[in-house]
Design goal:
By secondary structure, the protein is mainly α. It has two domains: 209 residues, HUPs (Rossmann fold), CATH 3.40.50; 82 residues, Tyrosyl-Transfer RNA Synthetase (Orthogonal Bundle), CATH 1.10.240.10. It contains 13 helices and five strands. It has a three-stranded parallel beta sheet with strand order 1-2-3. A two-stranded parallel sheet has the order 4-5. α4 crosses α7 and α10 packs across α12. It is elongated, with a radius of gyration of 21 Å. The structure holds adenosine-5'-diphosphate and tryptophan. The site of tryptophan has 12 residues, from β1 and α7.
Length: 319
């Protein structure tokens, strides 16, 4: 069983990314074969500054390594280090009906959020299909927003197989229902597009300030409070043990426990988990040569995995 995940280096990773995507990937590391790649080609649909893209790509690698990606269990690579994905995307493009892409919600949503209507953004799902099919992935863990892209991937694999013979496996999306939507500072879904994120590794002062600014209702210290749906409690639950979370819930219900207390507890729980990650990240960041070696080794192994698939594909299409 081969699992593949891609993450766009389109900004700093935040708590929502950690609990919504990274952590479940780390939990899978001991099962089957795992591939994780940094989708820097995809990020070019939004990032137009070369230096920023390069830095953000490195930052994603550092964040994953610091938080628990083990390169002996998970193959990590940069998408651009496997240029064959662009080649495969072209072959798939030639079989992609315009209508299939026109129906993609994500394209329409992005236009609604003010992104430029470029060909790259429109063709994004074809490149994503190439990422997945080139690695013969069986399972692709994604958020709900990416479900349709997996359907496009399966559709394109089927079209390719119908035209040229059985080359591609049809991958399955894996959408963990257990992963909750992590709330941001304002109570909406935490997302960099909403500017309500707490980044994994922003400086501690800024994290403290943000935690203290999490929006709550205006109940006074003595009043009993409902923990469920309260962002501080929902975030605390992610970092705390079940026993600690139950204790906070009881304190809220009993009254005499204020949001300030809970925010302090949240900050401490974040630090308990992330202080060691932060230390590891700082050490890794000081040694760019080692990071580059890790990425080069990933690139070599990823290209090796793609080579036999591309060989079959090129022969099939008539090259
Ligand atoms: P953003 O919304 O900040 O742009 P992305 O769409 O790049 O984040 O998300 C990357 C991954 O992190 C996806 O798998 C997504 O499902 C997950 N993720 C992002 N924000 C959240 C959140 N608030 N709750 C749960 N998962 C999230
Ligand atoms: N589109 C995905 C996202 O925005 C990132 C991505 C690109 C991806 N290629 C992929 C995810 C292949 C899984 C498999 O989150």
């Amino acid at each position: 069983m081969r699992t593949l995940t891609g993450i766009q280096p389109s900004g700093k990773l935040h708590w929502g990314n950690y609990f919504g995507a990274m952590k479940s990937m780390f939990d899978l590391q001991d099962k089957g074969e795992n591939f994780m790649f940094i989708a820097n080609f995809h990020a070019m649909t939004t990032v137009r500054d070369g230096a920023a893209l390069r830095e953000q790509t490195r930052d994603v690698a550092l964040d994953y390594l610091a938080c628990g990606l083990d390169t002996s269990k998970t193959l990590m690579y940069r998408q651009s280090d496997v240029p064959e994905v662009q080649e495969l995307a072209w072959y798939l493009s030639c079989l992609t009906p315009m209508g299939l892409l026109e129906r993609c919600h994500s394209y329409k949503d992005k236009l609604a959020h003010g992104l430029d209507a470029t060909h790259g953004l429109f063709a994004y799902p074809v490149l994503m299909a190439a990422d997945i099919l080139i690695m013969n992935a069986d399972m692709v863990p994604v958020g709900k927003d990416q479900k349709q892209h997996l359907e496009v991937t399966r559709d394109l694999a089927q079209k390719f197989n119908n035209a040229y013979g059985e080359i591609f496996k049809l991958p399955d999306a894996y959408i963990p229902e257990t992963v909750a939507t992590i709330p941001g500072l304002d109570g909406q879904k935490m997302s960099k597009s909403y500017r309500n994120t707490i980044e994994l590794f922003e400086d501690l002062k800024s994290i403290k300030k943000k935690v203290m600014s999490i929006v709550t209702d205006s109940k006074g210290l003595d009043e009993p409070k409902v923990p469920e749906g309260n962002s501080i409690y929902e975030l605390y639950k992610l970092f705390a043990t079940p026993g600690e979370a139950a204790e906070m819930a009881d304190s809220f219900r009993r009254g005499g426990y204020g949001y300030g207390h809970a925010k302090k507890a949240l900050l401490e729980a974040y630090r308990r988990l992330f202080d060691p990650f932060r230390e590891k990240r700082e050490a890794l960041a000081k040694d760019p040569a080692t990071l580059e070696d890790i990425l080069r080794d990933g690139a070599r192994r990823a290209r090796e995995a793609a080579a036999p698939v591309m060989e079959k594909v090129r022969i099939a299409v008539g090259l």
